[in-house]
Amino acid sequence: MSLDSKELRELIELIGRSNFVSFELEREGFKLRLEKGVGTAAGSTAGAVSVVPQPPAAGAPAAAPPAALAPASAQAAATPAPSALAPTASQEGPAAGLVQMTSPIVGTFYRQPSPDAAPFVEVGSRVRKGQVICIIEAMKLMNEIEAEIDAEVVEIVVANGQPVEFGEALFLLRPLA
Amino acid sequence: MFRKILIANRGEIALRVILACKELGIRTVAVHSTADTDALHVKFADEDVCIGPPASRESYLNISAVLSAAEITGAEAIHPGYGFLSENAHFAEVCREVGLTFIGPPPEVIRRMGDKAEAIRTVRHAGVPTIPGSGGLLEDEEQSRQIAERIGYPVLIKAAAGGGGRGMRVVEDAADLPRQLEAASSEAMIAFGVPDVYMEKYLGQPRHIEIQVLGDTHGNLLHLFERECSIQRRHQKLVEESPSTALDAELRARMTGAALASAAAVGYVNAGTVEFLLDVTGEFYFIEMNTRIQVEHPVTEMVTGIDLIKEQIRVAAGEPISFGQEDLKIQGHAIECRINAEDPDTFVPSPGKIRTFHVPGGPGIRVDTASYAEAVIPPYYDSMIAKVIAHGNTRGEAILRMRRGLESFVVEGIKTNVKLQQRILTDEDFVRGRLSTRFMDRFPVPVRKGQE
Known about the structure:
The structure holds 2 protein chains of 2 kinds. In chain A, 7% of the residues lie in helices and 31% in strands. Chain A contains 1 helix and 11 strands; from the N terminus they run H-E-E-E-E-E-E-E-E-E-E-E. In chain A, the strands form 3 sheets. In chain A, strands 4-11-9-6 form a 4-stranded antiparallel sheet, with no helix packed on it. A 4-stranded antiparallel sheet of chain A has the order 8-7-5-10, with no helix packed on it. In chain A, strand 1 and strand 2 (30-35) form a beta hairpin. In chain B, strand 1 (4-7), helix 1 and strand 2 form a beta-alpha-beta unit. Chain B is of the alpha+beta class. Chains A and B meet through strand 10 of A and strand 3 and helix 3 of B.
């Protein structure tokens, strides 16, 4: 049994008016967590609402997750109130619009082709699909790693000379149209 | 002694090696696929490196990924476990080339014993009995008759292009030969497209007896007695024990002697197992040698008190074996049951999430496992999730302890073959020690449409 939008709004208002700082409700197919922010940077009372649809039990109708809800008392805050509606799997993923580029092999990450040369990219660089973006050295072999999409480099996640494993995040990229 | 070892494997054997390294004060590196990120061997190792996606070919069998992981962590040696790269001579060679110690025999030995025909030639040359056979294709009835006389009836006519137990015909006596020869040849033609057949002695109810051997780089080579592994289904072992009820002191002496001769013939170093088939007549024949640690090694550890993994590491580090042949004796009796994530009746694998996991304990029970409650058994690898080993002062006590252990082993969320193991442990033939590789024939699988 999950709550519809109206019931959810009522519950949030009820908790909001109460002295409770955090509230959690779990039912089959549905989990709700409310938390009141205490002293955010902007001094607002923005809180956090997260509604996480659990995989429905066999036979239970799948609950349609409510659209993004902000608590009634939220104000634009320096620390944004996340209303994470996505399933837990993507809660650790990159921010919206960005793509993680991960290492396809095990080895040591280098930003430039040789110690004296300039790095392949900096933050802000634009790369084309197929362009060499870094080197991963493995067993004395310098493997040139290519960008898989046209993108702008938003963040270089690993440090020069750092060992990396398969699947480790190397860059955060913003895809270019 | 090594300061850091990388374990190129997963599951219970990876954990087993990691824990042996902890006892030796050696730091450990676990490698894993993305499917094993939460695996126990990863959690217990000092360092871990993700080396690829779930598929074995791209992870645990990926030589460059494994070697790169050793490079970035500074591992000095690699323990390959069993399966995966453990008998890959090329991998052992590459390790040697890049200055990593492969914990096992030299690549040349792996290669030689890995080629079954070459292994048989090698040990025969050393005076070890091998299954009598034609040594080549059968040409005509007259030649076949002569070969059969030499080998002694009953004989087996096998399709040269066959395998997996298909394309074989038993010939009981000389009168039967022409007809069976004809039939075998045409069946081979139909099934495999090639009429070529060869002949071997037929062993009706053989027992699988293997001898554990251990050699070092100081000229020591010794054996740690036998294990019986006759209870198999489709060549997959289910139950192993030591000692074997089929061996008396005299036969044991002859078989361990043959095993040592086989190992000596190739200058064997580190742990290995020589496999034989024992006929009802008391004759035994070499079938192959496994140049690695085996799944069922705990059975030998329980009756000898020796830690085989630690010995492997010591030998690889150039140390002598820490005991002598005269220090060893069989103490009591040990039995191992392999617990697989599979339907106990149909043997279909049953991967998934384990909800409840309670391992048995108490006197004489050892469980080697990397499974735990909430663990997800992935579908990409073999289905063995645990080994239960029972030790007792007698075989009878070991059986009682195993039954008690199996009864108190609780696994929920996935299906396991615990019930099948219980049936085996209460089977009258098993209890009486009446074993052969035909044992599991009496545990039939319901045949689904389309299955062979």
